[in-house]
């Protein structure tokens, strides 16, 4: 489903590669944690999947397609199959919960009757059916992240990328978010989550990919966060 | 394509960017106003040229008794007069008509022209005025052909043409038009820069939205269209305001101020001609603004990954 083939990424004006010679494969239905210190290459890894960045060497394949051969006007099509969630939620402050979720469908030209049907469904899935008309500022951090997840998932993507989704949340709230991501994973969606949160990784017992200075140093199928750190 | 969505995004963007857009509209209006004035001057020149060329005549003055011209040792003989007339007639169809004016007729015209100066008329004997041919041309611009053909013939004193004088007049009008165009181009460049800045400000103020749009896979067209429309709408607004200035110029300056003075000199531009500039102004406004917005957006997208 997602395959990295000896991928190296060197940013301009930086001598040290952000990713170095990384090869791995993620198959349908997997839940993968990407762990490592800040600057270890986690975010670069996610950006390569989205084709926000191009590898300096090597190839990235998503759904069997070589991204380096994907013309720029097809990139939106790729991104429609990938949902993305960030640490800082990135909601539109002047739109309600429902409008924030609907926005993701409106901008890809979905018909209104379809939007009217699927937005309540996905809000129900994330447990915010009763808060559809609230503004993000009226919600807690955990609830805001649920809205962001609803927006990322509303188009039923094959892959959900989450870049430190619990980074701004307290442990109890984080557990709720992880339950939600787990539920989304059970629908068959690949979830790739970059995180610093050892407790979460250890409790979930899923595949762990560890990056260190751009190198892939560990790839365990039912791993924990780390041995000592 | 969800038109309603694009339009609502456009409305939000317009509201946020109101002051910037006002500046764009004003400067675009000013540049297109200059452009419209240039168009009107051109129309006026064409109109006047037509009017005057219809009435334009070449006068071939023949030697008279007291001519000082070395070409005129004596008054033109009847043979010479006939020769000149033949030459003129041989130039048809450029020459439309040839009319001989003898001294008596010349005197009548002279009396009529200078009736306000009775002393001058009294002191001028009829035989002081030369005989002449009045020649009408089908194309007054080809005056030189007639002049070259008869100027050096024996018995011809001089060949006079109103065209030379009018040409100077029209040259002045043409430079006025060129000046307006040059100024318009200058201001249009300023307008293009303004539009570019306004579109960038607009795009920057909606970075959050455009970032999310990119992330969820909106096409570039969808992301850029509201900004493009915003720029084009400002261009259209500027064009309409510029046209209002042009119309005001027609009403206050041409009709109220110039018409009483210039009416005897031929027709002035009328409203249909003024209205005729509207499509040009609107087209120029929309196209210039559209291209400026589009180019700015492409550069901005590359730089900022909107």
What can you tell me about this protein's structure?
- The complex is a heterodimer of chains A (229) and B (306).
- Chain A has helices at residues 42-49, 75-79, 97-106, 112-125, 141-153, 171-186, 198-204, and strands at 2-9, 19-26, 31-35, 57-62, 65-66, 82-86, 159-163, 190-194, 207-212, 215-220.
- By secondary structure, chain A is an alpha/beta fold.
- In chain A, helix 6 links the parallel strand 7 (159-163) and strand 8 (190-194).
- Chain A is globular and about 50 Å long.
- The model of chain A has no long low-confidence stretch (mean pLDDT 93).
- With 306 residues, chain B is of the alpha+beta class.
- In chain B, strands 2-3-1-4 form a four-stranded antiparallel beta sheet.
- In chain B, helix 1 crosses helix 9 (220-262), helix 7 packs parallel to helix 10 (271-304) and helix 9 (220-262) runs antiparallel to helix 10.
- The relative contact order of chain B is 0.18.
- Chains A and B meet through helix 2, strand 6 and helix 3 of A and helix 8 and helix 9 of B.
């Amino acid at each position: 489903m997602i395959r990295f083939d000896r991928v190296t990424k060197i940013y301009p004006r930086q001598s040290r590669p952000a990713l170095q010679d990384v090869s791995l494969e993620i198959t349908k239905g997997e839940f993968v944690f990407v762990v490592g210190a800040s600057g270890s290459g986690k975010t670069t890894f996610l950006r390569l999947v989205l084709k926000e960045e191009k590898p300096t060497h090597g190839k990235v394949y998503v759904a069997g397609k070589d991204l380096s051969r994907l013309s720029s006007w097809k990139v939106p099509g790729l991104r429609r199959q990938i949902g993305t969630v960030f640490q800082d939620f990135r909601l539109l402050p002047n739109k309600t919960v429902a409008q924030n979720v609907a926005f993701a469908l409106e901008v890809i030209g979905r018909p209104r009757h379809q939007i009217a049907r699927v937005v309540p469904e996905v809000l129900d899935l994330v447990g915010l059916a009763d808060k559809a008309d609230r503004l993000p500022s009226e919600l807690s951090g955990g609830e805001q992240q649920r809205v962001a997840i609803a927006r990322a998932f509303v188009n039923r993507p094959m892959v959900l990328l989450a870049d430190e989704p619990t980074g701004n949340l307290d442990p109890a709230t984080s557990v709720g978010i992880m339950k939600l991501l787990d539920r989304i994973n059970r629908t068959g969606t690949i979830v790739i989550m970059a995180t610093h949160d050892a407790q979460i990784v250890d409790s979930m017992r899923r595949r762990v990919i560890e990056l260190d200075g751009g190198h892939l140093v560990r790839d365990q199928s039912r791993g924990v966060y780390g041995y000592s750190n | 394509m969800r038109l309603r969505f694009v339009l609502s995004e456009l409305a939000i963007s317009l509201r946020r960017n109101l002051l910037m857009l006002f500046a764009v509209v004003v400067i675009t209006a000013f540049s297109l106003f200059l452009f419209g004035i240039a168009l009107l001057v051109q129309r006026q020149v064409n109109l006047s040229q037509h009017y005057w060329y219809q009435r334009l005549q070449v006068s071939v003055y023949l030697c008279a008794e007291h001519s000082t011209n070395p070409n005129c040792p004596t008054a033109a003989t009847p043979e010479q007069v006939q020769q000149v007339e033949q030459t003129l007639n041989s130039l048809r169809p450029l020459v439309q008509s040839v009319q001989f004016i003898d001294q008596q007729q010349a005197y009548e015209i002279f009396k009529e022209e200078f009736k306000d100066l009775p002393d001058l008329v009294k002191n001028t004997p009829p035989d002081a005025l030369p005989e002449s041919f009045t020649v009408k041309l089908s194309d007054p611009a080809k005056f030189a052909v007639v002049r070259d053909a008869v100027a050096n013939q024996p018995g011809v004193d001089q060949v006079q043409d109103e065209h030379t004088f009018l040409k100077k007049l029209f040259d002045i009008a043409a430079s006025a038009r060129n000046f307006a165009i040059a100024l318009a181009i200058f201001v249009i460049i300023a307008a293009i820069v303004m539009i570019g800045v306004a579109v960038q400000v607009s795009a920057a103020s909606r970075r959050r939205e455009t970032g999310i749009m990119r992330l969820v896979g909106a096409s570039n067209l969808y992301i850029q269209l509201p900004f493009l429309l915003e720029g084009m709408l400002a261009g259209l607004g500027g064009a309409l305001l510029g046209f209002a200035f042009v119309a005001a110029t027609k009403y206050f300056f041409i009709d109220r101020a110039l018409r009483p003075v210039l009416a005897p000199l031929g027709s002035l531009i009328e409203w249909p001609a003024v209205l005729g500039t509207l499509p040009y102004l609107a087209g120029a406004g929309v196209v210039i603004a559209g291209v400026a917005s589009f180019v700015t957006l492409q550069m901005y997208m590359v730089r900022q990954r909107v």
